[in-house]
Design brief:
Layout lengths: L16 H16 L8 E7 L5 H13 L7 E5 L7 H10 L17 H12 L4 E3 L2 E2 L8 E2 L6 E3 L9 E6 L9 H17 L11 H12 L2 H4 L4 E7 L4 H17 L5 H24 L9 E6 L5 E6 L1
Parallel strand pairs: 1-7, 1-8, 2-7, 8-9
Antiparallel strand pairs: 3-6, 4-5, 9-10
Helix pairs in contact: 5-6, 8-9
Length: 311
Amino acid sequence: MITSQSIDTSGIVDDKSDHCIPFILDSTSKKSSYPAHQLPIFIGVNGAQGSGKTTLVSTLAKKLRQPPYSLSTIVLSIDNLYLTHELQLELAASHPSNPLIQYRGQPSTHDLSLALSLFSDLRQGKLTSIPSYDKSAYGGQGDRLPKEEWVEVNRDKRHETEVVIFEGWCVGFRALPREKLVREWECAVEEREKGDYVGRLGWNKLEDVEFVNEALRRYDQLTDQLDALIHLDAEDPMFVYEWRSQSERKLRETTGSGMTDEQVVDFVNGYYPAYELFTSRLRAGAFNEEKGRQLRLIIGRDRRVRKVVKM
C-alpha cells in the first residue's frame, strides 16, 4: 500500500528538451520531404503525472516557435478532450460498479469524436478551435468550457500550424490482447494474496479492467496518426505518487487549494492500474517494428534523464 509517508519533494528541471528538439526536427524533415505527407507533424508526448511533462511541452513549444526554427507550434492536451460533465455522469451511471470510470481520467472518459475531428481539421490546415477544460467545475468533477472560450488556430493562413504536440498521461498507450490482460491481472491478484503487492491492478475486478482496455483500443485511431512519440519513462512508475504530491503541494502554496497527500494517494490509485498494464507495451515501442519514430527518455526519481533510447 502506498502511503503519504513515502512521498518526498523534489524539483522539476528541464534536461529533456535538448534531446527532444533534434528528434522533432528530424521527424519534421522526414515528413516534409514527401510531397504526399505535408505538415503539420503530430508529436505525441507521454509521461506520468508530475514527471515534468508540462514543463517539457511548454519548453518545446517555446523553442520551436522561436528562431532558428520558427515553426508554428500548438499544444493539444488530452486533458482538454475529456467528456462533458453531463456525458461523464452518464458513463459512470452506465457502469456504477466500475470504480475506474466514475471520474474523468481513464480511457473511455475522453471525447474521441472531438479528438478525431480536431486531428482532421489541423491536418487540413482549417481554422480550428482548441477545446479547454475546467477541472475545478462542479466541485472538482470538471467540465468542458463553452466553445466561445476555446482558442482558435490557423486563422492566419501565413502561419498555419506546422507542429502539433499532443500530450497526456496515456498518449501512445496500446490495448493488450485479452489473453495477456488476463495473465497480467491474475499475476497481480496472486501477488496481492501473498501480501507483498504494492500495485493497484490486483485490487480491481477483471471485468472493470477489461472495460478500460477495450476502450483504449479505440484510441489507436489517434496513436496511428502520430508521426513520432516522446516517452518520459520513469525508472519506477511508483514515482508518480511522489511527483503528483509535490505538484499539489506547490498548488496549495501558491493558490491555497490542492489535494492533500492522502488525497493524492487515492487519486493516483485510480490511474495506477493503467501504468501496470500498458507501460511495458509502450517501452517496447508504440509503432511496432517501425524504427526511429519513438524517443524514450528514462528518468529517475529526481526527474533527471538517466538514459536516452531512440526506437
